[in-house]
């Protein structure tokens, strides 16, 4: 992953390199097209003036004259008729003469070394202390031909250097500024998109789709933000469904209670009818009470920081007690119960696990036909405990297996008005709180097998 810090360093270095490169290229062009020709022209003008003065000057005075010019900040090299090179002013670092330089002696030609000089460092050629980096002209003294080569000393060239430095700074600053503006826009764009998305979330509009495709912290933030928005949308829909389902599940028994309460007001009801209506009201009241308890249990389980009161207890004993409590329901439907419970101890919340076994056993009985069969087993393998409850009831369609653990989900709402659709959701939450596994296997028309896997410790 490319971090923002790493990107910033890379981009900054890239900007600096590009800026310096562009500045060097542009300054090179300025030097080539403006500064070097101007410097060449200035020195040529000085050389012409010196040449004119030398025409009327005695040979004996030439040496003193060249020394006086050198004191004005010039470097001068004079080729005498015998071929010797004499320097005035600061000595040249390089004094190798080219055939072109020697060839102007005695001719009305000009050597434009400043204009045509190429050294190893382009615009730094301006400061090359080389006799080839000069302007050269020929002159005569007492009918003898000479040539002199002249250039300004480096100390006097800083006005041109100042121009180069200022140009370099301005160009570099402009390139860096423009690049940083583009970079800032590139970095701010996803932040603005996140800002707009945040406003939508604040307005409870969770249908947010971000188009930020980055492989850095901003990309990670956008991905997590999108997940958060999707989760909020899911939770919002769950909340709405929850309210609708709770309203429906409460409304149905309340309407029944209200209806039968009104019927009881009729004085013409027989004693048998009154008892029947009261039993219905009692059943609906119990149904409301059970639903309320389940909702309260789910609400407490939703509080992730709610501690689970774990302790070590006998699981096989607990299962036997829950089976015994369901005995009358089994007898009522003439069902066969087979159980094989290995003596095991588990470290868990005893009350919560009691809810698990009650829900699973109730489902097995409720969705089995009369004279059906239920098999319950409990065994231990290594550090895990396996509890299975198997029935030969109506089973669950394959397409519904993934949804049966959802709250208020009913495979067929019409087949059982006694189910709230919360039982398996409660089982799932409790088992998850114990870091266990809850597995459902079922085949329509053949029965269902549920397995709860718990850790010993």
Automatic annotation (TrEMBL):
HAMP domain sequence ranges: 185-237
Domain of life: Bacteria
Entry's Gene Ontology molecular function annotations: ATP binding; phosphorelay sensor kinase activity
Substrates-to-products reaction catalysed: ATP + protein L-histidine = ADP + protein N-phospho-L-histidine
Membrane-spanning ranges: 6-27, 161-184
Alphabetical list of PROSITE patterns matching this protein: HAMP, HIS_KIN
The Histidine kinase domain, residue ranges: 245-457
Location of the protein in the cell: Cell membrane
Enzyme class: transferase
Pfam family, one: HisKA
Signal peptide: none
CC per GO annotation: plasma membrane
PANTHER family the record matches: HISTIDINE KINASE, SENSOR HISTIDINE KINASE CPXA
Its biological purpose: Member of the two-component regulatory system HssS/HssR involved in intracellular heme homeostasis and tempering of staphylococcal virulence. HssS functions as a heme sensor histidine kinase which is autophosphorylated at a histidine residue and transfers its phosphate group to an aspartate residue of HssR. HssR/HssS activates the expression of hrtAB, an efflux pump, in response to extracellular heme, hemin, hemoglobin or blood.
Protein name: Heme sensor protein HssS
């Amino acid at each position: 992953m490319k971090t923002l810090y790493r990107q910033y360093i890379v981009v900054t270095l890239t900007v600096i390199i590009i800026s310096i490169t562009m500045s060097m290229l542009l300054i090179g062009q300025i030097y080539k097209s403006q500064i070097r020709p101007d410097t060449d022209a200035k020195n040529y003008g000085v050389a012409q003036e010196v040449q004119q003065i030398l025409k009327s000057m005695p040979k004996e005075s030439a040496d003193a004259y060249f020394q006086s010019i050198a004191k004005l900040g010039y470097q001068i090299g004079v080729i005498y008729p015998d071929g010797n090179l004499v320097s005035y002013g600061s000595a040249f670092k390089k004094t190798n003469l080219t055939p072109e330089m020697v060839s102007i002696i005695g001719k009305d030609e000009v050597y434009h070394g400043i204009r045509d000089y190429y050294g190893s460092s382009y615009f730094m050629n301006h400061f090359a202390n080389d006799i080839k980096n000069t302007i050269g002209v020929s002159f005569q003294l007492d009918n003898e031909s000479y040539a002199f080569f002249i250039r300004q000393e480096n100390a006097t060239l800083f006005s041109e250097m100042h121009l180069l430095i200022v140009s370099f700074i301005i160009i570099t600053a402009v390139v860096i500024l423009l690049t940083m503006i583009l970079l800032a826009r590139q970095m701010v764009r996803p932040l603005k998109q996140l800002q707009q998305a945040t406003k939508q979330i604040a307005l409870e509009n969770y249908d947010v789709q971000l188009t930020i495709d980055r492989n850095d912290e901003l990309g990670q933030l956008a991905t997590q933000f999108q997940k958060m928005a999707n989760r909020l949308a899911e939770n919002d829909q769950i909340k709405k469904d929850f309210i609708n389902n709770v309203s429906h599940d409460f409304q149905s028994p309340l309407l029944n209670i209200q209806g039968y309460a009104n019927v009881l007001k009729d004085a013409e009801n027989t004693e048998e009818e009154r008892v029947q209506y009261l039993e219905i009201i009692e059943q609906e009241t119990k149904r409301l009470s059970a639903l309320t308890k389940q909702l309260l249990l789910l609400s407490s389980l939703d509080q992730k920081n709610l501690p689970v009161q774990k302790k070590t207890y006998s699981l096989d004993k607990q299962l036997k007690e829950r089976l015994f409590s369901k005995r009358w329901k089994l007898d009522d439907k003439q069902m066969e119960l087979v159980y094989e419970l290995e003596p095991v101890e588990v470290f868990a919340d005893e009350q919560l696990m009691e809810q698990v076994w009650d829900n699973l056993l109730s489902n097995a009985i409720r969705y089995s036909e009369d004279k059906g069969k239920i098999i319950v087993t409990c065994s231990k393998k290594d550090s895990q405990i396996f509890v299975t409850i198997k029935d030969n009831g109506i089973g669950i369609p394959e397409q519904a297996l993934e949804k049966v653990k959802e709250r208020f989900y009913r495979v067929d709402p019409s087949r059982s008005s006694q189910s709230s659709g919360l039982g398996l959701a409660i089982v799932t939450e409790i088992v998850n709180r114990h870091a266990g596994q809850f597995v459902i296997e079922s085949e329509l028309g053949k029965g269902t097998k549920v397995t709860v896997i718990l850790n010993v410790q």
